[in-house]
């Protein structure tokens, strides 16, 4: 089997599990409304699964009328979920554990899609960072104080025995232009999204990209909802159908890899203004990385309990959540068709 064929077979098999658990109910018009909170602008290939589920009609096929509503990061998304004003969001496993474990928020993870972390650390050939141990004493740019990027940096450094205090940080932007700060030595590296890292690799040959997934388990993107929503039978049905549509979308994107993601890019571009599509080679590289991320988990929308535990162990090791808790209490595998699968 080819690389693509093997991954596609795994995705489709797990998708069948998801679809088997889906209800057929809907509103009077056959489509139920559901609100998805995107913590970043939708016009990013990180949301390729959502955009394909929309433009290819997978949401509609599962009886859903999905509204995408942007928030200013994960914190307001979590607050909106807990207030019952939206049903589902995609946030990081780190934020989920901090909210539920440290702050006691009634938040649960119900599935995943990008099972590898989508953050990358970019340095320059002038002083490349290609290993976690090379972070000692470095000045690293982050998009904000605290937050997922900063915690991810702590975790990567910690994997090499480097204490957080041994790292210096500076708040910088997320745009590719920040690389000029690296090239001139004002910062040693900075954290960016996968899309931006792919763009820099294509346009700045001196850029060096390090993948934190080489060092840590934490960082995956998960679907979260409130415990109240997760235990409401009517809402459960909608959430199952949402995850089923995402399973269809990831299977479609995976299958399209053999064709250079031509149909995927055409569909996304028919409705969404995604800047990466202006450089097809960058879009293809990013989509290939996301396909790897789709295939790295427990089926297309499942969460591996073992990785969930490993993530908790890492996050608690740097003091972001208390030690000695049971992270399984923040995981509801019954909504994605993978409960009991190991």
UniProtKB/TrEMBL annotation:
**The SsuA/THI5-like domain covers which part of the protein?**
50-256
* UniProt-listed Gene3D superfamilies: Periplasmic binding protein-like II (3.40.190.10)
| Pfam families given in the database record | NMT1
PANTHER family, per database record: 4-AMINO-5-HYDROXYMETHYL-2-METHYLPYRIMIDINE PHOSPHATE SYNTHASE THI11-RELATED
In which family does this protein belong, per the annotation?
A: Belongs to the NMT1/THI5 family.
Species source reads Pseudonocardia alni subsp. carboxydivorans
Name of the protein this chain belongs to: Thiamine pyrimidine synthase
Where is the secretion signal located?
1-20
**Keywords annotated in UniProt:** Iron, Metal-binding, Pyridoxal phosphate, Signal, Thiamine biosynthesis, Transferase
Q: Does the keyword Iron apply?
A: yes
Give me the reactions it catalyses: N(6)-(pyridoxal phosphate)-L-lysyl-[4-amino-5-hydroxymethyl-2-methylpyrimidine phosphate synthase] + L-histidyl-[4-amino-5-hydroxymethyl-2-methylpyrimidine phosphate synthase] + 2 Fe(3+) + 4 H2O = L-lysyl-[4-amino-5-hydroxymethyl-2-methylpyrimidine phosphate synthase] + (2S)-2-amino-5-hydroxy-4-oxopentanoyl-[4-amino-5-hydroxymethyl-2-methylpyrimidine phosphate synthase] + 4-amino-2-methyl-5-(phosphooxymethyl)pyrimidine + 3-oxopropanoate + 2 Fe(2+) + 2 H(+)
Record has Lyase as a keyword: no
Q: Which InterPro entries match?
A: NMT1/THI5, SsuA/THI5
Its pathway is: Cofactor biosynthesis; thiamine diphosphate biosynthesis
- Quaternary state and interactors: Homodimer.
Top-level taxon in the UniProt lineage: Bacteria
Stated role: Responsible for the formation of the pyrimidine heterocycle in the thiamine biosynthesis pathway. Catalyzes the formation of hydroxymethylpyrimidine phosphate (HMP-P) from histidine and pyridoxal phosphate (PLP). The protein uses PLP and the active site histidine to form HMP-P, generating an inactive enzyme. The enzyme can only undergo a single turnover, which suggests it is a suicide enzyme.
